Amino acid sequence: MTLSTRNVMVGLAAGLAVLALWASGMGTVIHVPGDYPTIQQGIDAAAGGDTVLVGDGVYTGPENKNLDFGGKALRVTSELGPAATAIDCENDGRGFYFHTGEDSLSVVEGFTIRNGYVGTLGGGIYCLGASPSIVRTVIIGCQSDAGGAIACESASPLIEGSTMSENDGGLNGGGALFCWQGSFPIVSNSILWGNMPDEIAVVNGNPAVRYSDVAGGRAGVGNIACDPLFVNVLAGDYSLSYDSPCLDSGDPLAGVPDGGGDRLDMGAFEHLIPYNDLALSFTNTPDSVAQGSRVSWDVSFTNPLSIPVTVDVWFDVSSQIRCAIIMEYRDVTVPPQTTHNRTLSLPVPNAAPLGQYTIHGRVGVMDMIDGGVYDAENFIVEILEGHALSYVESSSGLGYPQLEAGRTELEMGDVDGDGHPDIVSIGDHGSPYINTNEHGIMVWFGDGTGTWSVYQNGNFGYGGVALGDVNNDGLMDVGYAMHHNYSGNDFGDQLIEVALGDGTGQNWQPWDDGLATNGETWGMFGTDFADVDNDGDLDLVSNSFGAGSGVHVYLNQGDGTWVQSFGFLEGNSTDDIVFGDVNGDGNADFAAAHEYGTVYLGDGAGNYVLADGNLPPPGWVGRFGPDLGDVNNDGGDDLSYCDGSGGVHVWLWAGDTTWTDVSAGLPAGGPYETTQLFDMDVDGNVDVLAFGEGLVTVWRGDGVGGWVQATQFTLPNPGYFAAFRVGVDADHNGYPDIVLVDEEGSWINRTNHLRFFKEASSPQSLSVRPTYPRGGEVFIIGSVRFIDWVSGVPGQEALAVKLELSTDGPGGPWTTIADGLPNNGRYQWTVAGNQSLDCYIQYTVVAGQDTATAVTAMPFTIASAD
């Protein structure tokens, strides 16, 4: 057997422990071969409480196998551990036979037992009516008809820190362990791997297995099922390689030999850390996360030296049924006497099996053959079933329409500043407002429970709508584009307009000089706001509705005038347009439902270029219902849309006008007419929603482009799409809601119905969860960006929200962005702060004496415009 230096050191540590026992005067130490030539002779000479200390070497012959304690409470241990001390049974007999009522005070420790063979039970060790302790023992290459390594008959031994591999349990199985006749052994911190025909076979009994690596998986706390990555099985070296998942994966409460790191390894060999000064640690580790969500935690490693150290950091995840490398980052230079901090976040697949997983971390040098780990750390997280989304209609006060069906657009926001989101729409055709034939700006004020009351102002044609504060006075303003206009005064007299609000939602002042001045003669519609030129003012984009008026971007001059920076006429379209940041450069891009193309990238100055790249052709009216959202959590937005066959599609931006199709799992055809991208279950991953022909479906995203249907509900026939908006939590239960307009009734008499659906769960405690920024975004200093959140509020207490910024990591220090905000889920922020790649926002919600706090899961970047 090959003896490595590190394994001798571990064995020496164990030997020193035995020396300490000698020094205490507890029993006599009998040396083999010094006092007696064979192990059995040493056992026979010992009395209860004695230690038989076996020197290094390979022991063979009849008195070095089938070893029998004879019922004595002895410790039979090697001097230098299992790498140096072997019992070779020479394929005739077993290592130990316990059958005289031995209990846990009868201890076997620190041997390799190999080449055992019996035709009955227990090729390595057989416990019959006895329950000894088997500690730090390697059992390899042993055979029997039941229990190749260990067999238990009416026995419950303790098997601690041991390795069993390449054993054969024959016809009755249990290559590592066989239990019958009421056997209840305890297996801890051990490796059962590569045995035949299975690892554990139970006829009668129930072994308790914990913090162990078992091939094929085994229920129990801390168990994994990963290749242990032994150093060299062919050479008989069953110690752990530097990247073994068994490193630092044992019982966190167990003692660790000197030099073994800060947590016990699984198996018989503790991996010695060659360089202990660089310490890896985890904080803010979750106890559990939901399927389809994300697991996030903080990592730090400290260099206490006076010189810089360059290291690699890598991670794997293991469970009872699978193991995989999940992340690595290399060549991290840590300055002298400095701590490197980083927040990590990983997607949990929608179909991840429920149960416990271990996240392992290593810091060291990945390419070093031996001894490449300076420190290791891990934590256990439980995967739970994801939140079961369900929606109930809450449309009281929305009423039923009198006018005809047709397209419209909705937005949600806190128009009157009372902390409760409201619903906003404009126009006549397809309008769900019923009290008059005049239909200008319509606001349905929410009360925070899903009940509504309406107020209307103006008289102009139907179209699209956007909400934001265009003059930076802290009050909600509205932008809108009309298919046609009726008004003869300044309010509603042009196809694209902006109106300032006074904080009531009932009075509006036109602020729109220069809009709709570039050939838009008819049919403008979809509208959105973003700070296109990063100057601190919201700008506007609008798309036409099948009328050849094209797409237009107007820059806000800050004084009520607007200047076009980009636009074109002609081409067909299907209304919708939305701002986002596709390439993650901090500049506003947009996606339009237009036949000339969909995705346009902005340069931060108001200029745009088409970036459809390898996307399928948009079709003669453009893609239906496009939306933008960060599906794979890389900081840039991705694209969803419906095609002409009612199928739902999602494409990830891959850079350089290249897109990756991740539509597998979504319907290739169906009734759908529009999409939305939003994290509806607030698990850290964007979900996709689609609506059409009376059907609304939510597919849960897993953060890498995988989808599974989460919920679905239907509307009265025919239920054609007229408007669809998600993402605002109007009833304060901590989950975003859905508002829509659908066409109902027979063909000649169809009318639009405005309906609101709130997520059905009830909050049990005060909570706040960030929804934007999500992490990875770039914010330009001086530009306008939105900070979004949802908050679960038991009851309807008056709340105040505080937002703080850290540019130095998730631990602060924190600088106040805003305080005393209404809990309406959105704050318009003019970006301030130092340039940093490590920015976080802390959200604090206060209700009376109750407080809830959350921090963005991953860092975003604050950069200058230069």
Count all strands and give the number: 67
Helical segment count = 2
Low-confidence stretches: 1-25
Strands across the major sheet, in which order?
Answer: 1-2-4-7-10-13-16-19
Write the layout of secondary structure elements.
Elements: H1 5-23, E1 29-32, H2 39-45, E2 51-54, E3 57-59, E4 75-78, E5 85-88, E6 96-98, E7 107-109, E8 112-114, E9 125-128, E10 133-135, E11 138-140, E12 150-153, E13 158-160, E14 163-165, E15 177-180, E16 186-188, E17 191-193, E18 200-202, E19 208-210, E20 213-214, E21 230-232, E22 237-240, E23 279-283, E24 288-290, E25 294-303, E26 309-319, E27 323-334, E28 338-347, E29 355-364, E30 373-384, E31 391-393, E32 411-413, E33 422-426, E34 441-446, E35 452-457, E36 463-468, E37 477-482, E38 496-501, E39 508-510, E40 524-530, E41 539-544, E42 551-556, E43 562-568, E44 573-580, E45 589-594, E46 599-602, E47 608-610, E48 624-629, E49 638-642, E50 648-655, E51 658-661, E52 674-678, E53 687-692, E54 695-701, E55 707-714, E56 718-726, E57 738-744, E58 751-759, E59 767-772, E60 778-780, E61 784-792, E62 800-806, E63 815-821, E64 826-830, E65 836-847, E66 850-855, E67 860-863
